[in-house]
Backbone:
C-alpha cells in the first residue's frame, strides 16, 4: 500500500509511459518467428524490386538455344551443348563441319562447303545464343574449306529457363514484384473500402446499419469465385483493374470486423466517460475510436495480403490474371504445373518463392495479432 | 424440431430466389454473349441460334422463362456444349465431384480431428508444435502448388500413382485429388480442434469427470470431444458444400471430369445456363449444409434447442 502510494507520489522520471504502439512493438520484437519473417519479407521485397536490374537477362528475352535448361550454378553452355549448338549453326549455314577444337573461351572449327564460303554466313553464328564475335581465321585457296573461330558466350541460369527459353531467375523476381505489389495495392483497396463501409455502418447504426450489413450478407452468400470471375469478365484482363477487382471482393470481412469493433468501442465505459466529460464526437472519434480500430485493421491487413496474393495467383493460374509476357508467381506456377514431367524446376522455384512469402506474411500477421490484441496480455 | 426444419426450408426459398436473380442479371449485363467466338459465326447463323434459345427476347421475359423452367427442375441447354443439357452435365460430373469431395472431407475430419486432439492433449510439447507447424504449412501452401507436387513426387518420381485422369473411378486415380483437396482442410480442422479441445478440457464438467475417476480415454472422447465439436461442425458445413461441388484447380490439374471446371469455363464463355446451373447447385449445397450444421448443433450441444 505504501509502496503504491510512494510510486504515485514520486513518479520515476526514467520510467516513461509506453504508448500502445511502443508496447506492441516490444512484444513483436520478442516474437522470433515474426521478426525473422519480417526480415525475410523485407529481403524478398528488395530482391524482387532491385534484383532484375542486376540480372544479365531481361525477363522477356528468349534464348532459343536454352529451352528448358536445368538450373545450374556453373555457367552455360556445357560441353555437349556447344557441339549441339555448333551442329545447329553449321546446318543453318549449309556447310559441313570437319573438325573442331576449343581454346580459352573460343571454338575453332573447320567447315567444308560445296561452294566457296560466303563471309556473310558468319551472322548465323553471331545470331545464336551460344556464340559471339565469329570471324574467319583462314581459308583454303579454293575457298571450299574455311577455319572459323567464335567466342562462346557464358550465361548463368541459376533457376534454369522456361519452356521458351527465358531466364527463370529474372522471371521469378519480376513475378515477385507483381505478386507483392498486387498484394499490397489490392489489400489497401480492400481495407479502404472495408474500413469506410464498416465504420459508416457502425457509427450510423439503426436502419442504415441494418441495410448496409444485409447488403454485405447478400454479397457473402454469392459464391465467392463467381464474384471474382464476374469482375474479371467485366473488367477484361486488365492488369490495373485486376487490383481493384480483387480488392473489391475481399473487403467484406474487413467491413464486418470494423463495424463490430466500432459498435463495441462506442459502448465502452471510457467512451461514455469521455462523453460525460463533454468531449466532442470528433474528439472521441480521433482519440478513442480510431486508435482502437487500428489494431484489428492492421492485423487483418497483414492477413489479407497473403489472401490477395493467393487469389491473384489463383486467377493467374486459371489464365485470368496477369497476361504474358508480364508474369506473376501464379502464372509461373501454372506453367510449371503444365511442364512438371520435363522441367520440374519451373514449378519448384516460383512455388518456393510464393509459399515462403505466404508463410512470412502469415507469421507476421499472427505476431501482430499477439502483439496488438489486448485480450492476450 | 420438425417445425424448425420446415421453417428453415421455407426461408431457403427467398434466399435461393435472390441468388438466382442477382446472378442471372449479373451474367447478362456482362459484355459479350455465348455465340461471340473468336472465329465469329456468320451473322445469320448467330441470329438463328440466338432466336432458338430465346436470347433476343426482352431480358425480363428471359428471366421469367428461366425461373419457370427452374421450378420444373429444368436448367436448360448448355450453349457451348450444345449436345448436352445442363442437367445432363451435372448428372455426369456431380457424382464424381461428390465422391472426391466427400472422401476428402471424411479424411480431413478424421485425420485433422485426431491431430488436433493429440496436439491439445500435449499442449506446448513436441507433438503439439509438430501439429501446429504441419497445420500452418498445410493451410498456407495453395492447392495449385500441392497438386503438382503430389504429381511430381508420387506419380513421376516414385511412379506409385497415375499422373491424372479419372480412370473410371479407379482407387489409385482418386488418391492424388483427394489428398490435394483434403490437406488444406485437414490443417484447418486440426487447428480448430486443437483450440476448442484445449478450451473444452479446461471446463468444469471435465474437471468433475476427472475427479470422479473416469479414465482418460472416456474423459477425452466421451466428454471433452463433444464440447469441442461445435467449431468443427460450423466450419465443416460450408467446407463440405465447397468440397462436394468440385474444385477447378484439382479437376484441371488431375484431369478429372467433375463439375468444378464448369463454373469458370462457363462464365468465360457466357454459357448463361451452365453458369446459372452451377450457381444454383452451389447455393443449394450451401443451404443444405448450413441446415445440417444447425441441426447437428442441437444433437451435439443439448443447450441448443429448436422448439
Residues:
Amino acid at each position: 500500500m505504501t509502496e503504491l502510494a510512494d510510486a504515485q507520489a514520486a513518479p520515476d522520471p526514467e520510467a516513461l509511459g509506453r504508448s500502445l504502439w511502443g508496447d506492441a512493438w516490444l512484444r513483436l520484437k520478442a516474437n522470433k518467428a515474426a521478426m525473422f519473417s519480417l526480415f525475410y519479407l523485407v529481403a524478398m521485397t528488395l530482391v524482387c524490386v532491385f534484383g532484375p536490374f542486376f540480372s544479365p537477362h531481361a525477363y522477356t528475352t528468349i534464348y532459343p538455344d536454352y529451352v528448358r535448361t536445368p538450373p545450374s550454378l556453373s555457367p552455360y553452355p556445357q560441353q555437349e551443348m556447344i557441339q549441339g549448338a555448333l551442329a545447329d549453326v553449321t546446318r543453318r549455314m549449309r556447310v559441313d563441319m570437319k573438325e573442331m577444337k576449343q581454346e580459352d573461351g573460343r571454338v575453332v572449327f573447320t567447315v567444308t562447303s560445296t561452294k566457296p564460303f560466303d563471309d556473310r554466313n558468319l551472322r548465323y553464328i553471331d545470331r545464336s545464343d551460344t556464340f559471339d564475335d565469329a570471324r574467319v581465321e583462314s581459308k583454303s585457296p579454293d575457298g571450299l574449306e574455311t577455319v572459323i573461330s567464335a567466342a562462346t558466350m557464358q550465361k548463368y541460369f541459376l533457376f534454369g529457363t522456361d519452356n521458351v527459353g527465358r531466364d527463370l531467375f529474372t522471371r521469378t523476381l519480376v513475378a515477385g514484384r507483381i505478386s507483392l505489389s498486387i498484394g499490397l495495392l489490392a489489400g489497401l483497396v480492400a481495407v479502404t473500402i472495408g474500413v469506410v463501409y464498416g465504420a459508416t455502418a457502425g457509427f450510423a447504426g439503426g436502419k442504415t446499419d441494418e441495410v448496409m450489413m444485409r447488403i454485405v450478407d447478400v454479397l457473402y452468400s454469392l459464391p465467392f469465385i463467381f464474384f471474382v470471375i464476374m469482375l474479371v469478365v467485366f473488367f477484361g484482363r486488365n492488369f490495373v483493374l485486376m487490383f481493384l477487382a480483387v480488392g473489391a471482393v475481399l473487403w467484406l470481412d474487413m467491413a464486418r470486423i470494423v463495424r463490430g469493433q466500432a459498435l463495441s468501442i462506442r459502448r465502452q465505459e471510457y467512451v461514455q466517460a469521455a462523453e460525460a466529460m463533454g468531449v466532442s464526437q470528433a474528439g472521441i472519434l480521433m482519440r478513442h475510436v480510431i486508435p482502437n480500430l487500428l489494431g484489428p485493421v492492421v492485423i487483418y491487413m497483414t492477413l489479407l495480403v497473403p489472401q490477395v496474393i493467393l487469389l491473384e495467383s489463383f486467377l493467374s493460374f486459371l489464365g485470368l490474371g496477369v497476361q504474358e509476357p508480364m508474369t506473376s508467381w501464379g502464372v509461373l506456377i501454372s506453367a510449371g504445373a503444365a511442364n512438371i514431367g520435363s522441367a520440374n524446376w519451373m514449378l519448384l522455384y516460383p512455388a518456393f518463392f510464393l509459399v515462403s512469402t505466404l508463410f512470412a506474411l502469415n507469421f507476421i500477421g499472427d505476431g501482430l495479432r499477439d502483439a496488438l490484441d489486448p485480450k492476450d496480455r | 424440431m420438425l417445425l424448425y426444419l420446415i421453417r428453415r426450408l421455407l426461408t431457403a426459398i427467398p434466399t435461393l430466389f435472390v441468388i438466382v436473380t442477382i446472378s442471372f442479371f449479373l451474367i447478362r449485363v456482362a459484355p459479350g454473349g455465348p455465340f461471340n467466338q473468336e472465329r465469329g459465326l456468320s451473322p445469320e447463323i448467330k441470329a438463328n441460334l440466338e432466336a432458338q434459345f430465346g436470347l433476343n427476347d426482352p431480358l425480363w421475359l428471359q428471366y421469367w422463362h428461366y425461373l419457370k423452367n427452374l421450378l420444373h427442375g429444368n436448367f436448360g441447354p448448355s450453349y457451348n456444349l450444345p449436345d448436352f443439357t445442363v442437367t445432363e452435365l451435372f448428372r455426369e460430373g456431380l457424382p464424381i465431384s461428390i465422391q472426391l469431395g466427400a472422401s476428402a472431407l471424411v479424411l480431413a475430419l478424421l485425420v485433422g480431428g485426431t491431430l488436433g486432439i493429440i496436439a491439445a492433449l500435449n499442449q506446448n510439447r513436441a507433438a503439439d508444435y509438430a501439429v501446429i507447424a504441419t497445420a500452418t504449412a498445410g493451410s498456407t501452401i495453395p492447392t495449385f502448388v500441392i497438386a503438382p507436387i503430389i504429381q511430381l513426387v508420387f506419380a513421376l518420381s516414385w511412379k506409385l500413382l497415375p499422373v491424372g485422369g479419372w480412370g473410371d473411378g479407379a482407387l489409385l486415380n482418386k488418391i492424388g485429388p483427394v489428398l490435394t483437396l483434403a490437406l488444406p482442410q485437414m490443417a484447418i480442422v486440426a487447428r480448430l480442434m486443437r483450440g476448442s479441445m484445449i478450451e473444452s478440457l479446461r471446463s468444469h464438467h471435465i474437471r468433475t469427470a476427472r475427479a470422479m475417476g473416469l479414465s482418460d480415454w472416456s474423459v477425452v472422447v466421451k466428454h471433452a470431444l463433444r464440447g469441442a465439436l461445435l467449431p468443427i461442425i460450423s466450419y465443416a458445413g460450408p467446407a463440405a458444400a465447397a468440397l462436394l461441388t468440385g474444385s477447378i484447380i484439382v479437376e484441371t490439374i488431375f484431369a478429372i471430369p467433375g463439375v468444378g471446371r464448369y463454373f469458370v469455363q462457363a462464365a468465360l464463355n457466357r454459357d448463361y445456363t451452365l453458369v446459372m446451373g452451377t450457381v444454383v447447385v452451389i447455393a443449394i449445397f450451401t443451404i443444405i449444409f448450413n441446415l445440417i450444421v444447425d441441426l447437428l448443433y442441437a444433437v451435439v450441444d443439448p443447450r441448443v434447442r429448436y422448439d
User: Anything to note?
Assistant: Chain B has twelve helices and no strands. The interface with chain A takes residues 15, 18-19, 22-23, 26-27, 30-32, 136-137, 140-142, 144-145, 147-149, 151-152, 156, 163, 248-249, 252-253, 263-264, 267-268, 275, 278-279, 282-283, 286 of chain B (CB under 8 Å).
